Amino acid sequence: MDELASVDGTIGPAAQMTIPVTDEGLLRGDGVFEVARLYAGRPFAWDEHVERLQRSAANLRLEFDLEAALAEVDALLAKVGPVDGAIRLVITRGGRRVAVVSPLPERQRAVALGTVRYAPTRVLDAVKSLSYAANMLASRLAREAGADEALLVSPHGRVLEAPTSAFFFVLDGRLHTPPLADHVLDSITRRHVLELTGATARVLHEDLLGELEEAFLASTTREVQPVSSIDGRPLPAVPGPQTTEAADALRHRIAAQLRLT
Ligand SMILES: Cc1ncc(COP(=O)(O)O)c(C=O)c1O
């Protein structure tokens, strides 16, 4: 798939589209974004992404022209046609509206996690901001330590999420995910999985990681991705039954909402 992008409504090949170098979105990571997955060219849960984008921008005191951004996304989607991929919508402090359609990243069937110490930036609670260097570094540190992806753990030992996905775990036979009060992102996939499975929010201390029966990551681009090990300790079931159930239920909801056949 050729990556196409729109900058303030001008559409062209993504690699050739530009924004001014003075944009504080670039210079300071000051801005907000959303990523929605495209199924045959149609974004799943788009309304929820738009709602979160508005909330992120309001929390960051960033004003932007929502109507223009949505119309530009529509025009870009009309141009790319029925592709499977992802659409990223970025609003910068410099006032640029950037939309990019890209192929999905390659994903392994199951992922080995390595814990990385991480303190959420509290002032950015409920802001999906462009400031992702810490998340990207966490993934890199986990890979340097031999894992595929990071599992972020707070300085007090509370398990949080992965750098770009929510974390679910089965403990004592029940499915849980860390609470939003621990400053994890209000992930849209997390919301859907909670609803579909009846999972509940529960604080997880890292001391209990060895007791987990199953675990998976959840995000827009991954949907549900089983976890195979944490810090080198294999999980007993990969994917376990509750992981499979969650993955199937989410796929089913996506297909039903988008009326995919
Ligand atoms: C820190 C973080 N947690 C969780 C997620 C998953 O969120 P969603 O399900 O809305 O894609 C993301 C997505 O980028 C993220 O960046």
Automatic annotation (TrEMBL):
User: What does the record give under GO molecular function?
Assistant: lyase activity
Looking at the record's lineage, which domain of life comes first?
Answer: Bacteria
SUPFAM superfamilies with a match to the protein in the record: D-aminoacid aminotransferase-like PLP-dependent enzymes
**Keyword Lyase found:** yes
**Does the record bear Heme in its keywords?**
no
> Which InterPro entries does UniProt cross-reference here?
Aminotrans_IV, Aminotransferase-like, BCAT-like_C, BCAT-like_N, Class-IV_PLP-Dep_Aminotrnsfr
* Family designation: Belongs to the class-IV pyridoxal-phosphate-dependent aminotransferase family.
Task: Please give the name of this protein.
Answer: Aminodeoxychorismate lyase
